[in-house]
Amino acid sequence: MRELLLKGACRFTDVKNGLPGIATNLLSSRLRDLEEAGLVSREDAPPPIATALYDLTEDGRELEPVLRALGLWGLRLMDRDEPGESFQAHWLAYAPLWFATDADPTAPPAVIQLVASGEKAFIEFRDGGISTRVGEAGEADLVIDGPHRAVLGLLMGGMSAKDARELGLRMSGRRELLRRLMPEGVHARV
After folding, report:
1. How distant, in Å, are the alpha carbons of 95, 101, 140, 155, 182 from that of 126?
2. Which domain holds residue 107?
3. What pTM, to 2 d.p., does this model score?
4. Which of 46, 169, 175, 186 has fewest C-beta within 10 Å?
5. Residue at 34 is within a domain
6. Is residue 69 part of a domain?
7. How many other C-beta atoms lie within 10 A of the C-beta of residue 119?
8. Quick check: 189 pLDDT over 50?
9. CB count, 10 Å around CB of 84?
10. How many CB atoms lie within 10 A of CB 174?
């Protein structure tokens, strides 16, 4: 559900790539169950795609607040590293989008480049809103680089800058931009 909510309509392989370690038969079974429950639709796409596309139905999209709540709950586990874990850039990009608001909506536009465990995404503040994208920003006002646990822990307010630095986090640029990220339901970091 999270993958389809974040990416929109996807091929089976796109969904599978977003869920490292899931067995093909298990994913097929779960997609079939979600389709039968009316939460996911399956449509055969025309060429050049010529494969099935999975997407959330309207009922499936209505689960966004539930997925958000689960993600917020899971942030408290971000300070732990588990062997064999993988990390993907789109996870980095969706966290600030789902869990934060601009604390200074009248401030000028700004960009924070995130580099977490080698994966890149950026946060853009503009016109009182926050948008996030996977990839590299052209010009960043602040660069935050380090292990994904430290980067996400800092961004989401579950970890102080001091604790994040102890895990290997590095910052360069306008650190005060962190104050513009106001995690919903999470308290202070700087």
Report:
1. 17, 11, 13, 18, 15
2. 81-183
3. 0.71
4. 46
5. yes
6. no
7. 18
8. no
9. 6
10. 15
Kindly tell me if the per-residue pLDDT of 55 is higher than 70. Answer: yes
Distances (CA, A) of 72 to 3, 28, 139, 155: 16, 27, 29, 12
How much is the pLDDT for 188? Answer: 42
Residue 17 tokens read as: 């790539």
| Contact between residue 155 and residue 95 where contact means Cβ atoms under 8 Å apart | yes
Does 133 or 122 have the greater pLDDT score?
122
What confidence tens digit (pLDDT) does each residue in 68-121 have? 788 777 766 655 666 766 666 666 666 666 667 888 999 999 999 999 878 888
Euclidean distance between CA atoms 101 and 130, whole angstroms? 7
Q: Quick one: 179 and 100 in the same domain?
A: yes
Of 112, 116, 61, whose CA–CA distance to 90 is shortest? 116
- Tokens representing residue 181 in the block: 């990220």
Cβ–Cβ < 8 Å for 135, 120: yes
Q: Is residue 175 part of a domain?
A: yes
Let me know if residue 131 belongs to a domain. yes
Q: How far apart are CA 91 and CA 113, in angstroms?
A: 14
Give me the mean pLDDT over the 133-143 stretch: 90
> Do 48 and 85 sit in the same domain of this protein?
no
* pLDDT for residue 187 is more than 50: no
What lies within 8 Å, CB to CB, of 143 at 6+ separation is 112, 113, 115, 170, 171, 172, 173
Q: Pick from 110, 5, 112: which is nearest to 56 by CA? A: 5
